[in-house]
């Protein structure tokens, strides 16, 4: 019998691979696309810088949202445990 706990399960390897492939392909295509633009070097530099900052801020935002979600799950689990503890005292 396999023990499955929804709090312990993570993303499947296929999903993780898909995410990494999508990230690498999109970043590569953006960099190559900017490189072949028929514009001055300073415009390309601006677009590269914008790509870098947009990517970094997206990663930071997703981490912050994930951390907040995990914090809320932990708080809810603690509240449920306290409620169960109080109820067991009054029932027993």
TrEMBL record:
- Please give one Pfam family short name: YiaAB
**YiaAB two helix domain span:** 15-67
Presence of the UniProt keyword Membrane in the record: yes
- Classify the source by domain of life: Bacteria
For the keyword Transmembrane, the answer is yes
Where, by residue number, does the polypeptide cross the bilayer? Answer: 18-39
Sorted alphabetically, which keywords does the UniProt record give? Membrane, Transmembrane, Transmembrane helix
Q: Specify the protein name.
A: YiaA/YiaB family inner membrane protein
Q: Which organism is it from?
A: Deinococcus hohokamensis
């Amino acid at each position: 019998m396999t023990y499955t706990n929804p709090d312990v399960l993570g993303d499947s390897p296929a999903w993780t691979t898909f995410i990494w492939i999508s990230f690498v392909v999109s970043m590569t295509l953006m960099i190559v696309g900017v490189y072949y633009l028929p514009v001055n070097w300073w415009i390309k530099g601006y677009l590269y810088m914008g790509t870098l900052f947009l990517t970094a801020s997206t990663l930071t935002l997703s981490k912050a949202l994930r951390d907040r979600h995990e914090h809320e799950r932990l708080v809810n689990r603690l509240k449920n445990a306290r409620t169960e503890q109080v109820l067991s005292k009054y029932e027993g």
